[in-house]
Write the structure tokens for this entry.
Amino acid sequence: MSNKQALDLFKSHRAPYLSHLFLSHLSEDNNHPRLVQNFFAKDAGRTEIVVAGRKKENKIVSYQGWDSG
């Protein structure tokens, strides 16, 4: 999946309550974490963009349940 495809998917299906987006579409040879982080940053709004590590674990994210109102 390209960065543009992933961003289009995020923008078209993002819920208003989405707090984190974990990106794991990066190829070791064809992409760079900083590049994709910057690419998504302008459209992230209040959603935290987390680029999944290839060789080490990511931080643990905890959340409270979602209330549909």
